[in-house]
Amino acid sequence: MKKKAPKLETRKLADLVPADYNPRTISDTALAGLKASIARWGIVQPVIVNKQTGNIVGGHQRVKALQALGATETQVLVVDLPEAEEKALNVTLNNQHIAGEFSASVLDLIGDIKLELPDLDAVTLGLDALVNNMSRFDVPQENKNIDEDEMKNTENECPKCGFKW
């Protein structure tokens, strides 16, 4: 069975219907970071709306941020799914277990970003929190100068929470 490609449209925010089952919430701090991101770069990931139900499938928090910024419309990607498929897609889009993890190289990348874009509000965008979160995982000194493939074969464990990587 061939699936129809989603269609990109512009819609008024007032016409978008949040799914009442949406399992994702956002803290005030995270919402501030999302608003700062949207203010700087715009919506680079469209909101996803289901044609069959009219519900937002993905992008509830982006819609909140846009509304808080005073926007009146946004780009949406329209999918055409039965409600059960819509719910499965919603959970999949919000599933942090399939989002992957940052490698330790993200710390260098954030350092480069902060040097090259000194006007970037790293605190509001959560970059500093990410650095603090990553640095709590003590990478042993002997692993700091090995290549990425060797790191993949080295097991580390956070002494506080027991997370292994």
Describe the structure.
By secondary structure, the protein is an alpha/beta fold. It has 2 domains: 7-98, Conserved hypothetical protein from pyrococcus furiosus pfu- 392566-001, ParB domain, CATH 3.90.1530.10; 105-152, no CATH class. The protein has 6 helices and 5 strands; from the N terminus they run ββαββαβαααα. It has helices at 28-41, 60-68, 83-93, 105-116, 127-135, 148-152; strands at 7-12, 17-18, 47-50, 55-58, 73-79. It has a 5-stranded mixed β-sheet with strand order 1-5-3-4-2, with helices on both faces. A hairpin with a 4-residue loop joins strand 3 and strand 4 (55-58). Helix 1 (28-41) packs across helix 2 (60-68). The radius of gyration is 19 Å and the shape is globular. It starts with 6 loop residues before the first strand and ends in a 13-residue tail after the last helix. Mean pLDDT is 83; it is low at 138-144 and 158-164.
In short:
The protein is an alpha/beta fold. Helices cover 36% and strands 14% of the residues. The protein has 2 domains: 7-98, Conserved hypothetical protein from pyrococcus furiosus pfu- 392566-001, ParB domain (Alpha-Beta Complex), CATH 3.90.1530.10; 105-152, no CATH class.
Under CATH, the homologous superfamily of the largest domain reads Conserved hypothetical protein from pyrococcus furiosus pfu- 392566-001, ParB domain
Distance between the termini: 39 Å
According to CATH, the fold-level topology of the largest domain is Conserved hypothetical protein from pyrococcus furiosus pfu- 392566-001, ParB domain
Net shape: globular
Q: Bin the strand percentage.
A: 5-15%
Fraction of residues in H or I helices: 25-40%
